[in-house]
UniProtKB/TrEMBL annotation:
One of its GO terms (biological process) is subtelomeric heterochromatin formation. It comes from the Eukaryota. It comes from Hibiscus trionum. This is histone acetyltransferase. Gene3D superfamilies: 3.40.630.30, Histone acetyl transferase 1 (HAT1), N-terminal domain. One of its GO terms (molecular function) is histone acetyltransferase activity.
Amino acid sequence: MGKKQQHPNADPLSEPKKKRRVGFSSIDAGVEPNDCIKIYLVSKKEEVGTSDGFCINPVDLNSFFEEDEKIYGYQGLKITIWVSSISFRAHADISFQATSDGGKGITDLKSSLEKIFGETLLENKDDFLQTFSTENNFISSVVSHGEKLQTKASNGHITHFNGNSDAASSDLEVVRLKIDNLAAGHLYSRLVPLVLLLVDGSNPIDVTDSSWELYLLSRKKFDQPENAQHLLLGFAALYRFYHYPDGSRLRLSQILVLPPYQHKGYGSHLVEALSNVAISENVYDLTVEEPLDYFQHVRTSFDIKRLLAFEPSQDAVKSAVSRLKQGRLSKKSHIPRFLPPPDVVEKVRKTLKINKKQFLQCWEILIYLGLDPIEKHLEDYVTIISNRVKADILGKDSETAGKQVIEVPSLHDTETSFVMFRSQNGEVGGVQMDEDQAKTQEQQLQQLVDERIKEVKLIAGKVSETCMKGTSSLA
Protein backbone atom coordinates (compact mmCIF):
# COMPACT_ATOMS: atom_id res chain seq x y z
CA MET A 1 0.00 0.00 0.00
CA GLY A 2 1.56 3.25 -1.06
CA LYS A 3 2.17 6.17 1.27
CA LYS A 4 3.00 9.75 0.45
CA GLN A 5 6.69 10.48 1.23
CA GLN A 6 7.37 13.57 3.39
CA HIS A 7 10.63 15.54 3.55
CA PRO A 8 12.25 14.80 6.95
CA ASN A 9 12.70 18.51 7.76
CA ALA A 10 9.27 19.56 6.53
CA ASP A 11 7.11 21.46 8.94
CA PRO A 12 3.84 19.56 9.27
CA LEU A 13 1.99 22.79 10.03
CA SER A 14 3.14 24.47 6.85
CA GLU A 15 0.77 22.42 4.67
CA PRO A 16 -2.88 23.42 4.82
CA LYS A 17 -5.24 20.72 6.08
CA LYS A 18 -8.26 19.71 4.04
CA LYS A 19 -11.53 20.76 5.72
CA ARG A 20 -14.26 18.19 6.12
CA ARG A 21 -17.62 19.45 4.91
CA VAL A 22 -20.59 18.72 7.15
CA GLY A 23 -24.09 18.90 5.63
CA PHE A 24 -27.21 19.92 7.52
CA SER A 25 -30.64 18.91 6.23
CA SER A 26 -33.23 21.65 6.28
CA ILE A 27 -35.86 21.45 9.01
CA ASP A 28 -39.30 20.57 7.69
CA ALA A 29 -41.51 23.66 8.02
CA GLY A 30 -44.60 21.64 7.22
CA VAL A 31 -47.61 22.61 5.14
CA GLU A 32 -50.95 23.91 6.33
CA PRO A 33 -53.86 21.54 5.57
CA ASN A 34 -55.92 24.49 4.31
CA ASP A 35 -53.31 24.98 1.56
CA CYS A 36 -53.13 21.40 0.26
CA ILE A 37 -56.64 19.97 0.75
CA LYS A 38 -59.66 20.53 -1.46
CA ILE A 39 -63.09 19.10 -0.71
CA TYR A 40 -65.82 18.63 -3.30
CA LEU A 41 -69.48 17.80 -2.81
CA VAL A 42 -70.53 15.62 -5.76
CA SER A 43 -73.94 14.31 -6.83
CA LYS A 44 -72.89 11.76 -9.48
CA LYS A 45 -69.88 9.54 -10.08
CA GLU A 46 -68.93 11.37 -13.28
CA GLU A 47 -68.00 14.40 -11.14
CA VAL A 48 -65.40 12.41 -9.19
CA GLY A 49 -61.90 13.20 -10.46
CA THR A 50 -63.02 16.47 -12.06
CA SER A 51 -63.67 20.00 -10.86
CA ASP A 52 -67.38 19.74 -11.77
CA GLY A 53 -68.47 19.18 -8.17
CA PHE A 54 -69.13 21.95 -5.68
CA CYS A 55 -65.91 22.98 -3.91
CA ILE A 56 -66.69 23.69 -0.27
CA ASN A 57 -64.76 26.02 2.01
CA PRO A 58 -64.31 24.48 5.47
CA VAL A 59 -64.19 26.62 8.58
CA ASP A 60 -60.67 25.42 9.41
CA LEU A 61 -58.97 22.19 8.40
CA ASN A 62 -55.79 22.99 10.30
CA SER A 63 -57.30 22.18 13.69
CA PHE A 64 -57.59 18.48 12.79
CA PHE A 65 -53.83 18.02 12.22
CA GLU A 66 -51.04 17.69 14.79
CA GLU A 67 -50.54 20.02 17.74
CA ASP A 68 -49.24 22.89 15.61
CA GLU A 69 -51.88 22.33 12.90
CA LYS A 70 -49.53 21.32 10.08
CA ILE A 71 -48.74 18.29 7.91
CA TYR A 72 -45.09 17.10 7.92
CA GLY A 73 -42.91 14.86 5.81
CA TYR A 74 -44.39 15.36 2.32
CA GLN A 75 -43.18 17.17 -0.77
CA GLY A 76 -45.73 18.33 -3.33
CA LEU A 77 -48.67 17.06 -1.28
CA LYS A 78 -52.17 17.34 -2.76
CA ILE A 79 -55.29 15.89 -1.15
CA THR A 80 -58.65 15.92 -2.91
CA ILE A 81 -61.66 14.65 -0.99
CA TRP A 82 -64.95 13.78 -2.67
CA VAL A 83 -68.12 13.72 -0.56
CA SER A 84 -71.23 12.21 -2.12
CA SER A 85 -74.44 14.22 -1.66
CA ILE A 86 -76.30 10.95 -2.39
CA SER A 87 -74.86 8.67 0.30
CA PHE A 88 -72.63 11.12 2.22
CA ARG A 89 -69.76 8.67 1.89
CA ALA A 90 -66.31 10.12 1.17
CA HIS A 91 -63.11 9.18 -0.64
CA ALA A 92 -59.69 10.86 -0.50
CA ASP A 93 -57.26 11.05 -3.43
CA ILE A 94 -53.75 11.64 -2.02
CA SER A 95 -50.72 12.42 -4.18
CA PHE A 96 -47.19 13.62 -3.35
CA GLN A 97 -43.73 13.68 -4.93
CA ALA A 98 -41.75 12.22 -2.02
CA THR A 99 -41.70 11.70 1.73
CA SER A 100 -38.87 12.35 4.18
CA ASP A 101 -38.54 12.93 7.89
CA GLY A 102 -37.27 16.49 8.26
CA GLY A 103 -37.19 16.38 12.03
CA LYS A 104 -40.93 16.48 12.64
CA GLY A 105 -41.81 12.97 11.54
CA ILE A 106 -44.22 12.01 8.77
CA THR A 107 -47.89 12.79 9.39
CA ASP A 108 -50.22 9.81 9.31
CA LEU A 109 -52.69 11.19 6.79
CA LYS A 110 -55.15 8.31 7.09
CA SER A 111 -55.67 8.69 10.82
CA SER A 112 -55.85 12.48 10.50
CA LEU A 113 -58.57 12.31 7.85
CA GLU A 114 -60.46 9.72 9.87
CA LYS A 115 -60.69 12.28 12.70
CA ILE A 116 -62.94 14.26 10.37
CA PHE A 117 -64.67 11.65 8.21
CA GLY A 118 -64.66 8.58 10.44
CA GLU A 119 -66.29 5.51 8.90
CA THR A 120 -67.73 7.50 5.99
CA LEU A 121 -64.23 7.55 4.40
CA LEU A 122 -63.88 4.72 1.87
CA GLU A 123 -60.31 3.84 1.00
CA ASN A 124 -61.09 2.11 -2.29
CA LYS A 125 -62.21 4.47 -5.06
CA ASP A 126 -64.27 1.81 -6.84
CA ASP A 127 -66.20 1.12 -3.65
CA PHE A 128 -66.94 4.83 -3.39
CA LEU A 129 -68.12 5.07 -7.00
CA GLN A 130 -70.47 2.13 -6.52
CA THR A 131 -72.32 3.96 -3.75
CA PHE A 132 -73.86 6.32 -6.33
CA SER A 133 -75.95 3.38 -7.52
CA THR A 134 -76.09 1.02 -4.53
CA GLU A 135 -77.10 3.80 -2.09
CA ASN A 136 -79.15 5.88 -4.49
CA ASN A 137 -82.21 5.56 -2.23
CA PHE A 138 -80.39 6.33 1.01
CA ILE A 139 -82.00 9.74 1.69
CA SER A 140 -85.41 8.61 0.44
CA SER A 141 -85.27 5.65 2.81
CA VAL A 142 -84.48 7.91 5.78
CA VAL A 143 -87.19 10.41 4.81
CA SER A 144 -89.75 7.58 4.64
CA HIS A 145 -89.15 6.90 8.36
CA GLY A 146 -89.87 10.51 9.30
CA GLU A 147 -93.00 12.45 10.22
CA LYS A 148 -93.89 14.78 7.37
CA LEU A 149 -94.49 18.29 8.68
CA GLN A 150 -96.93 20.79 7.27
CA THR A 151 -95.45 24.24 6.67
CA LYS A 152 -98.80 25.66 7.76
CA ALA A 153 -99.12 26.36 11.48
CA SER A 154 -102.24 25.57 13.49
CA ASN A 155 -103.21 29.26 13.57
CA GLY A 156 -103.22 29.38 9.76
CA HIS A 157 -100.13 31.59 9.51
CA ILE A 158 -97.99 30.98 6.43
CA THR A 159 -94.92 32.86 5.27
CA HIS A 160 -95.20 33.36 1.51
CA PHE A 161 -91.86 33.01 -0.28
CA ASN A 162 -91.04 35.09 -3.30
CA GLY A 163 -92.12 33.28 -6.45
CA ASN A 164 -88.61 33.53 -7.92
CA SER A 165 -87.08 31.71 -4.96
CA ASP A 166 -86.09 28.08 -5.34
CA ALA A 167 -87.53 27.54 -1.86
CA ALA A 168 -91.03 28.37 -3.13
CA SER A 169 -91.15 25.07 -5.03
CA SER A 170 -93.90 22.66 -3.99
CA ASP A 171 -91.59 19.66 -4.15
CA LEU A 172 -89.92 20.57 -0.84
CA GLU A 173 -90.50 18.40 2.23
CA VAL A 174 -89.58 18.80 5.87
CA VAL A 175 -89.70 15.66 7.99
CA ARG A 176 -88.94 15.09 11.66
CA LEU A 177 -87.24 12.06 13.18
CA LYS A 178 -86.33 11.28 16.76
CA ILE A 179 -82.59 10.84 16.89
CA ASP A 180 -82.93 7.42 18.56
CA ASN A 181 -84.64 6.25 15.37
CA LEU A 182 -82.10 3.95 13.71
CA ALA A 183 -82.43 5.67 10.32
CA ALA A 184 -81.97 9.14 11.86
CA GLY A 185 -78.88 8.12 13.82
CA HIS A 186 -77.41 6.45 10.75
CA LEU A 187 -77.88 9.56 8.60
CA TYR A 188 -76.59 11.95 11.25
CA SER A 189 -73.40 9.91 11.69
CA ARG A 190 -72.71 10.50 7.99
CA LEU A 191 -73.50 14.22 8.29
CA VAL A 192 -71.07 14.74 11.19
CA PRO A 193 -68.06 15.46 8.89
CA LEU A 194 -69.96 18.32 7.23
CA VAL A 195 -71.01 19.63 10.63
CA LEU A 196 -67.39 19.65 11.79
CA LEU A 197 -66.16 21.25 8.56
CA LEU A 198 -68.85 23.86 8.01
CA VAL A 199 -70.28 24.86 11.41
CA ASP A 200 -67.77 26.83 13.45
CA GLY A 201 -67.22 25.47 16.97
CA SER A 202 -69.66 22.60 16.56
CA ASN A 203 -69.62 19.21 18.23
CA PRO A 204 -71.62 16.09 17.28
CA ILE A 205 -74.85 15.59 19.19
CA ASP A 206 -75.42 12.52 21.36
CA VAL A 207 -77.40 10.12 19.17
CA THR A 208 -78.27 8.01 22.24
CA ASP A 209 -80.20 10.90 23.86
CA SER A 210 -83.85 10.59 22.82
CA SER A 211 -84.50 14.28 23.52
CA TRP A 212 -82.75 15.19 20.27
CA GLU A 213 -84.87 15.66 17.14
CA LEU A 214 -83.61 15.77 13.56
CA TYR A 215 -85.42 17.88 10.94
CA LEU A 216 -84.60 17.18 7.30
CA LEU A 217 -85.27 19.53 4.40
CA SER A 218 -85.33 17.61 1.12
CA ARG A 219 -86.45 18.10 -2.45
CA LYS A 220 -88.00 15.45 -4.63
CA LYS A 221 -86.31 14.77 -7.92
CA PHE A 222 -87.88 12.57 -10.58
CA ASP A 223 -85.32 10.47 -12.47
CA GLN A 224 -88.26 8.39 -13.67
CA PRO A 225 -91.95 9.32 -13.51
CA GLU A 226 -92.78 6.54 -11.07
CA ASN A 227 -89.60 6.84 -8.99
CA ALA A 228 -89.18 9.98 -6.86
CA GLN A 229 -85.79 10.37 -5.18
CA HIS A 230 -85.06 12.78 -2.34
CA LEU A 231 -82.14 15.21 -2.41
CA LEU A 232 -81.06 16.45 1.03
CA LEU A 233 -80.81 20.25 1.06
CA GLY A 234 -80.25 20.85 4.76
CA PHE A 235 -81.06 19.74 8.29
CA ALA A 236 -81.49 20.99 11.83
CA ALA A 237 -80.95 19.36 15.22
CA LEU A 238 -83.16 20.50 18.10
CA TYR A 239 -83.19 19.52 21.76
CA ARG A 240 -86.49 19.28 23.63
CA PHE A 241 -86.31 20.38 27.27
CA TYR A 242 -88.89 19.81 29.96
CA HIS A 243 -90.65 22.99 31.10
CA TYR A 244 -92.56 22.99 34.37
CA PRO A 245 -95.26 21.92 34.93
CA ASP A 246 -96.24 19.99 31.81
CA GLY A 247 -94.68 21.73 28.82
CA SER A 248 -91.47 21.76 26.84
CA ARG A 249 -88.97 24.16 25.28
CA LEU A 250 -87.13 23.72 21.99
CA ARG A 251 -83.50 24.73 21.49
CA LEU A 252 -82.01 24.80 18.02
CA SER A 253 -78.46 23.50 18.39
CA GLN A 254 -77.34 22.88 14.78
CA ILE A 255 -78.67 24.02 11.43
CA LEU A 256 -76.95 23.59 8.09
CA VAL A 257 -78.01 24.17 4.52
CA LEU A 258 -75.57 22.30 2.28
CA PRO A 259 -73.23 24.70 0.43
CA PRO A 260 -74.66 24.24 -3.12
CA TYR A 261 -78.10 25.31 -1.87
CA GLN A 262 -77.22 28.27 0.34
CA HIS A 263 -78.52 31.80 -0.33
CA LYS A 264 -81.58 30.43 -2.14
CA GLY A 265 -84.22 30.70 0.57
CA TYR A 266 -83.92 27.15 1.92
CA GLY A 267 -82.66 28.29 5.31
CA SER A 268 -85.72 30.51 5.77
CA HIS A 269 -87.95 27.63 4.70
CA LEU A 270 -86.43 25.39 7.37
CA VAL A 271 -86.66 28.12 10.03
CA GLU A 272 -90.33 28.58 9.13
CA ALA A 273 -91.02 24.86 9.56
CA LEU A 274 -89.32 24.85 12.99
CA SER A 275 -91.30 27.91 14.10
CA ASN A 276 -94.54 26.29 12.97
CA VAL A 277 -93.71 23.21 15.04
CA ALA A 278 -93.13 25.39 18.11
CA ILE A 279 -96.49 27.13 17.56
CA SER A 280 -98.56 24.06 16.68
CA GLU A 281 -97.22 22.07 19.66
CA ASN A 282 -97.51 25.10 21.97
CA VAL A 283 -94.01 24.81 23.41
CA TYR A 284 -92.92 27.52 25.83
CA ASP A 285 -90.47 29.06 23.35
CA LEU A 286 -87.90 28.32 20.65
CA THR A 287 -84.31 29.40 21.36
CA VAL A 288 -81.06 29.13 19.43
CA GLU A 289 -77.75 27.99 20.87
CA GLU A 290 -74.95 30.45 20.01
CA PRO A 291 -76.19 31.48 16.55
CA LEU A 292 -73.61 32.46 13.95
CA ASP A 293 -73.97 35.96 12.50
CA TYR A 294 -75.36 34.92 9.13
CA PHE A 295 -77.95 32.58 10.62
CA GLN A 296 -78.94 35.26 13.13
CA HIS A 297 -79.65 37.58 10.20
CA VAL A 298 -81.85 34.93 8.54
CA ARG A 299 -83.65 34.21 11.80
CA THR A 300 -84.20 37.88 12.65
CA SER A 301 -85.44 38.71 9.14
CA PHE A 302 -87.97 35.88 9.39
CA ASP A 303 -89.13 36.92 12.88
CA ILE A 304 -89.51 40.57 11.89
CA LYS A 305 -91.82 39.64 9.02
CA ARG A 306 -93.98 37.73 11.52
CA LEU A 307 -93.92 40.62 14.00
CA LEU A 308 -94.97 43.07 11.29
CA ALA A 309 -98.12 40.98 10.89
CA PHE A 310 -98.72 40.64 14.65
CA GLU A 311 -101.06 43.38 15.90
CA PRO A 312 -99.85 43.68 19.54
CA SER A 313 -96.22 44.19 18.50
CA GLN A 314 -97.21 46.61 15.73
CA ASP A 315 -99.26 48.77 18.13
CA ALA A 316 -96.34 48.89 20.57
CA VAL A 317 -93.90 49.83 17.81
CA LYS A 318 -96.18 52.62 16.56
CA SER A 319 -96.39 54.04 20.10
CA ALA A 320 -92.59 53.95 20.53
CA VAL A 321 -92.01 55.51 17.10
CA SER A 322 -94.50 58.30 17.90
CA ARG A 323 -92.67 59.15 21.13
CA LEU A 324 -89.29 59.02 19.44
CA LYS A 325 -90.41 61.38 16.68
CA GLN A 326 -91.21 64.02 19.31
CA GLY A 327 -87.63 64.29 19.59
CA ARG A 328 -84.11 65.62 19.97
CA LEU A 329 -83.22 62.93 22.50
CA SER A 330 -79.52 63.69 22.20
CA LYS A 331 -80.16 67.02 23.93
CA LYS A 332 -82.01 65.54 26.90
CA SER A 333 -80.34 64.75 30.22
CA HIS A 334 -82.34 61.55 30.72
CA ILE A 335 -83.02 59.32 27.72
CA PRO A 336 -85.77 56.67 27.94
CA ARG A 337 -84.86 53.17 26.76
CA PHE A 338 -87.88 52.63 24.49
CA LEU A 339 -88.37 49.02 25.56
CA PRO A 340 -91.49 47.08 24.56
CA PRO A 341 -94.19 46.76 27.23
CA PRO A 342 -93.85 43.55 29.31
CA ASP A 343 -97.33 42.36 28.31
CA VAL A 344 -96.37 42.59 24.61
CA VAL A 345 -93.16 40.65 25.30
CA GLU A 346 -95.28 37.91 26.87
CA LYS A 347 -97.84 37.90 24.04
CA VAL A 348 -95.05 37.54 21.48
CA ARG A 349 -93.62 34.58 23.40
CA LYS A 350 -96.98 32.89 23.84
CA THR A 351 -98.20 33.37 20.27
CA LEU A 352 -95.08 33.42 18.09
CA LYS A 353 -92.75 31.51 20.47
CA ILE A 354 -90.10 34.25 20.13
CA ASN A 355 -88.21 34.55 23.40
CA LYS A 356 -87.54 37.91 25.06
CA LYS A 357 -83.88 38.16 24.02
CA GLN A 358 -84.71 37.62 20.35
CA PHE A 359 -87.71 39.95 20.49
CA LEU A 360 -85.54 42.77 21.85
CA GLN A 361 -83.16 42.23 18.91
CA CYS A 362 -86.11 42.54 16.52
CA TRP A 363 -87.65 45.46 18.44
CA GLU A 364 -84.86 47.90 17.55
CA ILE A 365 -85.15 46.98 13.88
CA LEU A 366 -88.94 47.36 13.97
CA ILE A 367 -88.51 50.89 15.34
CA TYR A 368 -85.97 51.65 12.60
CA LEU A 369 -88.44 50.46 9.96
CA GLY A 370 -91.15 52.66 11.51
CA LEU A 371 -89.07 55.84 11.30
CA ASP A 372 -89.91 57.05 7.83
CA PRO A 373 -88.05 58.99 6.60
CA ILE A 374 -85.22 57.54 8.69
CA GLU A 375 -82.77 60.34 7.78
CA LYS A 376 -84.84 62.86 9.72
CA HIS A 377 -84.74 60.80 12.92
CA LEU A 378 -81.45 58.93 12.58
CA GLU A 379 -79.62 60.98 15.22
CA ASP A 380 -82.24 60.23 17.85
CA TYR A 381 -82.35 56.57 16.82
CA VAL A 382 -78.58 56.23 17.22
CA THR A 383 -78.94 57.86 20.62
CA ILE A 384 -81.33 55.19 21.92
CA ILE A 385 -79.10 52.42 20.56
CA SER A 386 -76.08 54.02 22.23
CA ASN A 387 -78.03 54.38 25.48
CA ARG A 388 -79.06 50.72 25.36
CA VAL A 389 -75.52 49.47 24.65
CA LYS A 390 -74.10 51.52 27.52
CA ALA A 391 -76.84 50.28 29.84
CA ASP A 392 -76.13 46.65 28.90
CA ILE A 393 -72.40 47.05 29.54
CA LEU A 394 -72.19 49.62 32.33
CA GLY A 395 -75.55 49.34 34.08
CA LYS A 396 -79.08 50.61 33.85
CA ASP A 397 -78.18 54.25 34.51
CA SER A 398 -75.74 54.34 31.58
CA GLU A 399 -73.32 55.88 34.04
CA THR A 400 -72.00 53.24 36.42
CA ALA A 401 -74.80 51.61 38.45
CA GLY A 402 -72.05 50.03 40.48
CA LYS A 403 -70.33 48.62 37.39
CA GLN A 404 -67.16 49.62 35.64
CA VAL A 405 -65.40 48.36 32.52
CA ILE A 406 -61.64 48.30 32.88
CA GLU A 407 -59.16 47.55 30.11
CA VAL A 408 -56.97 44.55 30.93
CA PRO A 409 -54.28 43.68 28.36
CA SER A 410 -53.87 39.92 28.05
CA LEU A 411 -51.03 37.94 26.50
CA HIS A 412 -53.10 34.76 26.60
CA ASP A 413 -56.04 36.14 24.61
CA THR A 414 -55.53 39.37 22.73
CA GLU A 415 -59.27 39.79 22.27
CA THR A 416 -59.85 39.89 26.02
CA SER A 417 -59.23 43.58 26.47
CA PHE A 418 -61.51 44.55 29.35
CA VAL A 419 -63.32 43.18 32.40
CA MET A 420 -66.46 44.33 34.20
CA PHE A 421 -66.77 44.47 37.98
CA ARG A 422 -69.38 45.64 40.48
CA SER A 423 -68.24 47.68 43.44
CA GLN A 424 -69.77 47.05 46.87
CA ASN A 425 -73.13 48.65 47.74
CA GLY A 426 -73.42 49.92 44.18
CA GLU A 427 -70.88 52.65 44.86
CA VAL A 428 -68.12 53.57 42.50
CA GLY A 429 -64.81 52.73 43.96
CA GLY A 430 -61.91 50.35 44.03
CA VAL A 431 -60.35 51.09 40.65
CA GLN A 432 -60.18 54.57 39.22
CA MET A 433 -59.86 55.04 35.46
CA ASP A 434 -57.43 57.59 34.19
CA GLU A 435 -58.15 59.72 31.13
CA ASP A 436 -56.67 57.20 28.66
CA GLN A 437 -58.65 54.31 30.11
CA ALA A 438 -61.87 56.33 29.96
CA LYS A 439 -61.14 57.26 26.34
CA THR A 440 -60.46 53.61 25.44
CA GLN A 441 -63.70 52.54 27.11
CA GLU A 442 -65.66 55.14 25.17
CA GLN A 443 -64.10 53.98 21.90
CA GLN A 444 -65.00 50.37 22.65
CA LEU A 445 -68.60 51.31 23.41
CA GLN A 446 -68.83 53.42 20.25
CA GLN A 447 -67.54 50.49 18.20
CA LEU A 448 -70.33 48.30 19.59
CA VAL A 449 -72.89 50.98 18.71
CA ASP A 450 -71.53 51.32 15.15
CA GLU A 451 -71.62 47.55 14.62
CA ARG A 452 -75.21 47.36 15.87
CA ILE A 453 -76.37 50.22 13.61
CA LYS A 454 -74.72 48.51 10.65
CA GLU A 455 -76.49 45.24 11.49
CA VAL A 456 -79.86 46.99 11.88
CA LYS A 457 -79.54 48.69 8.49
CA LEU A 458 -78.55 45.41 6.81
CA ILE A 459 -81.49 43.41 8.16
CA ALA A 460 -83.97 46.25 7.68
CA GLY A 461 -82.87 46.54 4.05
CA LYS A 462 -83.40 42.80 3.47
CA VAL A 463 -86.84 42.84 5.09
CA SER A 464 -87.92 45.89 3.07
CA GLU A 465 -86.69 44.30 -0.15
CA THR A 466 -88.53 41.05 0.55
CA CYS A 467 -91.76 42.88 1.41
CA MET A 468 -91.56 44.90 -1.81
CA LYS A 469 -91.07 41.73 -3.86
CA GLY A 470 -93.97 40.07 -2.11
CA THR A 471 -96.20 43.06 -2.85
CA SER A 472 -95.22 43.19 -6.52
CA SER A 473 -95.83 39.45 -6.95
CA LEU A 474 -99.40 39.88 -5.65
CA ALA A 475 -100.10 42.87 -7.89
